[in-house]
Design goal:
By secondary structure, the protein is mainly α. It has a single domain (about 1-154), classed as Four Helix Bundle (Hemerythrin (Met), subunit A) (Up-down Bundle). Helix content is about 55%, strand content about 5%. The chain has helices at about 1-20, 40-50, 70-75, 85-105, 120-145; strands at about 110-115, 115-120. The protein is globular and about 45 Å long.
Length: about 150
Amino acid sequence: MLALLETRIRTAKDKFVQLAQAVPEDRYDWRPMEGVRSFREVFIHVAADNWAPLWMDVQPPDSAPVARDTDSLAAYQKQRLGKEATQRELMRSFDFILSAVDQTRNRLNERVTFGGREWQIDQMWVALVTHMHEHLGQTIAYSRANRIVPPWSE
């Protein structure tokens, strides 16, 4: 199971990074309507979610931008980063989540608490990867609405 999830995370990483590069910086604040996330906000939201394995007792790098608390995660998502910094955060967060897969490989049946509920680690992985791909679809739709062709589909 983890091999498949790892493949799906790598696919999402490649596509998110390509889209973050393809979207002109002057479009980063575009949103289809009031009350929904902009490109910039979706990219940083995905980066924030990639730190969720902290709740699986995964060892973070010394330079982790968030701690295992919802306040630091919320503050991280409120950042207003430029295009290059947003891309760096996406890369750093995907590097972390991929390292977390390996750190949880032999602990999939352990239970953890995240988001106010108890999860088995394998269930949390499925939810995280599903959520990641939902936002990938969102950014693809945003791109097409802005006449930006996702680079991998050219």
